[in-house]
Specification:
The protein is α/β, with parallel strands linked by helices. Helix content is about 40%, strand content about 20%. The protein has two domains: about 5-250, pyruvate-formate lyase- activating enzyme (Alpha-Beta Horseshoe); about 305-373, Arc Repressor Mutant, subunit A, CATH 1.10.10. Bound molecules: iron/sulfur cluster. Iron/sulfur cluster binds near residues 15, 26 and 64.
C-alpha cells in the first residue's frame, strides 16, 4: 500500500466583521492575540508530529476566519518548525486565504518571504450592492488592487472565490463578475452558489434569493464564460487552467490525510489502516488559554469509510478509481457498490468501473450524495 499523502490545515478564527451568510468558525475581533495564537499552533504541531510521525506535507492551507489579518511574524515560529523538520520544501503548495478588506502590502510580502506561494482571495462579487448585501468589509476596488498587489509581491498562483445566486443577483451581474475575473487573467476560480445555512443571520432573517429560472440562466451563462477562459470544471465548484488545480483541496477530495491546527480545526490521519478523526476546541479564547488542549479523537467506523470517501471524491469530475478507493478505505469497491449504489446505477448516475458521476449524476450530485448517507 502506498503512503497516504498528508496535508496541513491551519485555522485562523477571527474576522473584522461576521458576514450574514457565514457559518464558519469565525469570530469578530479587533485585536486578537495573534502572537499567543502562533505559539499555540506550534505547540499543537509538535504534539501531532510526535503522535503521528513526521511525514512531509503535500500542501499547507491557512483558512478562516481571515488569515490575512495575522501578521507574518506571528506565523514565523510555525514555519520555522516546518522548515527545520523538512516538512515543506519549495514544491509544497502553501495557500493563504485573504480578504481584500485587510489588504496590506507588508503582510503580502511577509507571507511570500515565509514561503506562502498561493493566495485565495475572498472577492465574492465585484458588484457594489452585492458586496453590501453580503456584509463584506471591502469594495470592488479593494479586490482589484489586492490582485495587483499580490502579483507585485510575487504570487503567481491566485484563486478568486466568487459567489452566485446571491440576494437580488441577476445572471448579467454574475456574468460581469466572471468577466472581471477573466480581465484580471485569473486561472483558478471557486464559483459557488450561495446557500442559507443554519446559525447565520440570513437563516434568522432570510433574504429573497433569485428564482430557479435565474439560477439556471446564471449557471449556463457562467459556465460558458469560465470555459472561454480555458478553465476546466474539475470539481463541482472549482475551475482551473490544467495544472493549476488546488493540490490541497484535491487531497481532501481524494480522501487523503491532513493534520488540523487552530481553533475548531479538524484532522484525518490513517493509522495502521484505520482512519482517525481529530477535532480541536472551537472557541478561540479556549484555544488560546489551552483549555481542553489536544484534539478529541475518534476512529471512523469501517462501514462509514466508503461513504465518507465518496462524499468527497464524487465532487471531482474525474471521480476516484477503484484502486485509489481501496487504498484510502481498505474496502472492496465492487462490493461497496453493490451494497450502497444499486439505485444510482439503475438511474444512470455513475460511470462503470470507477466511482465517477455521469453527466446526469453530476447535474444531480446532491441526490447522488444523499444516497450515501
Ligand atoms: S470574511 Fe469569510 S470567514 Fe469571515 S465572516 Fe465573512 S465569510 Fe465568514
Amino acid at each position: 500500500m502506498n503512503a497516504i499523502p498528508r496535508s496541513l490545515y491551519v485555522h485562523i478564527p477571527w474576522c473584522l466583521r461576521k458576514c450574514p451568510y457565514c457559518d464558519f468558525n469565525s469570530h469578530e475581533a479587533k485585536q486578537p492575540d495573534f502572537s499567543g495564537y502562533g505559539r499555540a499552533l506550534t505547540q499543537d504541531l509538535l504534539a501531532d508530529l510526535n503522535d503521528f510521525g513526521k511525514v512531509p506535507f503535500r500542501s499547507v492551507f491557512f483558512g478562516g476566519g481571515t488569515p490575512s489579518l495575522m501578521p507574518p511574524e506571528d506565523l514565523q515560529p510555525l514555519f520555522q518548525i516546518l522548515n527545520e523538520k523538512n516538512l515543506i520544501d519549495r514544491s509544497t503548495e502553501i495557500t493563504l486565504e485573504a480578504n481584500p478588506g485587510t489588504r496590506d502590502r507588508g503582510h503580502l510580502a511577509g507571507y511570500r518571504d515565509l514561503g506562502i506561494n498561493r493566495l485565495s482571495i475572498g472577492v465574492q462579487s465585484f458588484q457594489k450592492h452585492t458586496l453590501e448585501v453580503l456584509g463584506r468589509i471591502h469594495d470592488t476596488e479593494d479586490s482589484i488592487i489586492m490582485v495587483e498587489e499580490a502579483r507585485t509581491a510575487g504570487f503567481k498562483r491566485i484563486n478568486l472565490d466568487l459567489m452566485h445566486g446571491t440576494p437580488g443577483q441577476t445572471s448579467q451581474e454574475s456574468d460581469a463578475d466572471l468577466n472581471k475575473a477573466k480581465a484580471l487573467g485569473i486561472d483558478h476560480i471557486s464559483w459557488y452558489q450561495m446557500t442559507i445555512e443554519k446559525n447565520t443571520a440570513f437563516f434568522s432573517n432570510p433574504p429573497i434569493l433569485p428564482n430557479e429560472t435565474t439560477l439556471e440562466r446564471t449557471e449556463l451563462s457562467g459556465s460558458r464564460i469560465l470555459e472561454s477562459m480555458g478553465l476546466v470544471h474539475y470539481e463541482i465548484s472549482a475551475f482551473a487552467t490544467p495544472g493549476e488545480e488546488a493540490k490541497h483541496n484535491m487531497n481532501y477530495w481524494e480522501f487523503g490525510d491532513y493534520l488540523g491546527l487552530g481553533a475548531g480545526a479538524h484532522g484525518k490521519v490513517t493509522v495502521s489502516g484505520e482512519v482517525l478523526r481529530t477535532t480541536r476546541t472551537r472557541h478561540p479564547d479556549h484555544y488560546l488559554k489551552r483549555l481542553n488542549a489536544g484534539a478529541q479523537r475518534h476512529y471512523v467506523d469501517k462501514e462509514l469509510l466508503g461513504a465518507e470517501c465518496l462524499m468527497n471524491s464524487l465532487r471531482l469530475q474525474q471521480g476516484i478509481s477503484y484502486p485509489l478507493f481501496t487504498e484510502r478505505t481498505g474496502l472492496d469497491p465492487e462490493k461497496f457498490r453493490r451494497q450502497h449504489l444499486m439505485v444510482a446505477d439503475d438511474l444512470g448516475l455513475l460511470m462503470p468501473e470507477k466511482f465517477q458521476a455521469t453527466e446526469l449524476g453530476w447535474r444531480h450530485l446532491n441526490r447522488l450524495l444523499e444516497m450515501l448517507v
